[in-house]
User: Fold this.
Amino acid sequence: MRARSVWPVSETVRPRNKGDVPDDPLSRLRHSASHVMADAVRRLRPNAKVTIGPAIENGFYYDFDTEPFAPDDIERIEAEMAKIIAQNLAFERKVISRQEALVFFEGKGESYKVEIIKSIPEGEEISLYQHGDFVDLCAGPHVERTGQIKAFKVLSFAGAYWRGDEHNAQLQRVYGTAFASRDDLKAHLLRLEEAKRRDHRVLGKQLDLFSVDELVGPGFVLWHPKGAIVRGVLEDLIRKEVVKRGYQPVYTPHVAREQLLEKSGHLAHYKENLFGGMELEGQRYLVKPMNCPFHVAIYRSRLRSYRELPVRYAELGTVYRYERSGVLHGLMRVRGFTQDDAHLFITEDQIEAELAACVRFGMDVLRMFGFEEVKFFMATRPKDFMGEIEAWNRAEAAIRRVLESTGMPFEVDEGGGAFYGPKIDLKIRDALGREWQCTTFQLDYQMPERFELEYVAADGSRQRPIMIHRALLGSIERFIAVLIEHFAGAFPIWLAPVQARVITVSEKAEAYGREVEGVLLAAGLRADADLSADKLNAKIRNAQLEKIPYMLVVGERDMAARVVSPRTRDGKQLPAQPVDDLAKTLVAEAAVPSLGVPNSKPA
RNA sequence: GCCGCCCUAGCUCAGUGGCAGAGCAUCGCUUUCGUAAAGCGGGGGUCCUCGGUUCAAUCCCGAGGGGCGGCUCCA
Assistant:
């Protein structure tokens, strides 16, 4: 907003102490850029009301109450910002009383600012920041002068709700970013382009991995043959590892009576996410949103002894959850997905050993994909929790001990737990430095209680087991999306839908090409042959675009010498060699990694 | 769900209130070729759906469907 008078110069760059306001130089720069942007928008649209404009992880945004922006507003706002920056105005800070602040912003008609002031606790300092004519309620800190903002960019517009609540006014958000140098900005914009290039939705189409069909329904994934191979490899791997570690595979139905989910508590806590209620013969049925109640049903199918605990049921369970249409996103956020799920039924004194084994298992699996950098998170009791606080405290203490015993640093996500128990989450870091949470281990005292699960203890008494819900990859769909983006579509050979393609130089080598393909297939490799009338260069190009790890060129020369001329997708040509030799090499290289032995390099 | 933008050939995308276009792919023919696109020719469209305005709608308006960017990293 404009002020006629300029505040007396006081401290400029001084943050007020407030825990969650970041105060690194870059955040300061970006927050200052957001003020400049707000000023620019106000110059273009004097009636726009300002709200908030924080620095965020890779830039900043500012929310306005104004008419929606159009794409070409980006340039206009940038041009206006450039002027403000060229003026090299000083950022000035002033502390005023609550009353002065209210009068000032009410006078400007800045109702959002008034609301913010009213929400500031009594006794806290209220400060204004001004550059030129633009004054904003702001805790700071800021840079000294607008001229210090040397590299910025307005990125996009979006709708956002006041205070993030959809019951509140719809605001217009402008996203931007700023960096200390033009080179840094350029690098960031390149990263954004790279992320776009790796978008699993784009690659999924290009590589013919999967699709989502309007007729089938949004959020429901169709796995094409090539995507199905990737998924199959993952599922086989999980099935094998799970058995090695003492789990028992089970299968459960996709639909169940409403009572099951009522008993599990899902109906009460998950109602808005439940898919399709149907009524048949006077019974109400629901599509399963989680596997746990079904595994519980197996557990309670007969009396259990302490001797058989821990009981570990594993299932690649497909679940359906209704997600609001606006949040669906490729394979990342869908309405039907498969979890590499498992439920462990254990005694209280098995908690630590089992959780520790889970953590090891998770780390081993993640390492197979080359995810070495893993962060640990502990999520504690949320607001809408079920059960007794004492049980929660015991569970949280156990989790803490396990995490501490691993020697790995971990962060605590207060209130981030599920409604039935606290959890451990693992986050991986992909080739672009983005973090993804896939692996999760959740302790649950509630479900056994609700279903009155029991086991007979050594002294003959009936005791209640504790459950651990765990998923390593999480949702297979989402995990594959992460893999696609991590590898930029160039899967390591053990995951590649086609591992080797035979490319004939001309029709003259067709029969030999088929023979070579046969040898590869017989060796257990996923191979095919391009016998089309395309020229060699075109065939190579197609194989490159499909990101096939090995191309085996066969022409008359190779045919005569009974060899193949291999080329890798990195563009390297390997010496011509007998097919059997190469097949052996490839089989070894394509072996599915096991026990945490990595066999993957990110693209 | 909400706000904005988008929906044209299998794919990527031009375009117009009055015959609907390109490149790639596909099909046919020619070429028989040595490491990232051979040449020529043919076929291919309810311009997302429904309704309205108009002499006339792919285009303008409305509703619906689908997609994309977002929707508290708080003054």
Summary: Chain A has 18 helices and 27 strands. The longest strand of chain A covers residues 151-161. The mean pLDDT of chain A is 89. Residues 566 and 572 of chain A are 9 Å apart (CA to CA).
